[in-house]
Amino acid sequence: MAISMTEAAAAHVRRSLEGRGKGVGIRLGVRTTGCSGLAYVLEFVDEAASEDQVYEAHGVKVVIDPKSLVYLDGTELDFVKEGLNEGFKFNNPNVRGECGCGESFNV
């Protein structure tokens, strides 16, 4: 499988990279935290490491470290606006449960 990104998410990342003035894409990863065990981590990438997996969608690179890929394989990254709120939405087929606040998940 792979990691994919909607056009809305790619457009948001592109605008952010342009505003930042540098970067080759965005890193998507997971870290241990919260009441359900794992949380998503997003950060800008200036250079991918040799062990990283790099996917490209709509002209934007998504970089993932090998340890996170196990939890993220098949995930679609979207950017949604709901009323006054906007943010990334993770459509991850591996998730088996989420905490009540939506900040963490388990597989």
Automatic annotation (TrEMBL):
InterPro entries: ATAP, ATAP_core_dom, Fe-S_cluster_asmbl/transfer, FeS_cluster_insertion_CS, HesB-like_dom_sf, IscA_proteobact
Record bears the keyword Kinase: no
Keywords: Iron, Metal-binding
Entry coiled-coil feature ranges: none
Domain Core: start-end pairs: 1-103
Cofactor(s), by name: Fe cation
Similarity annotation: Belongs to the HesB/IscA family.
Protein name: Iron-binding protein IscA
Species assigned in the record: Ectopseudomonas mendocina
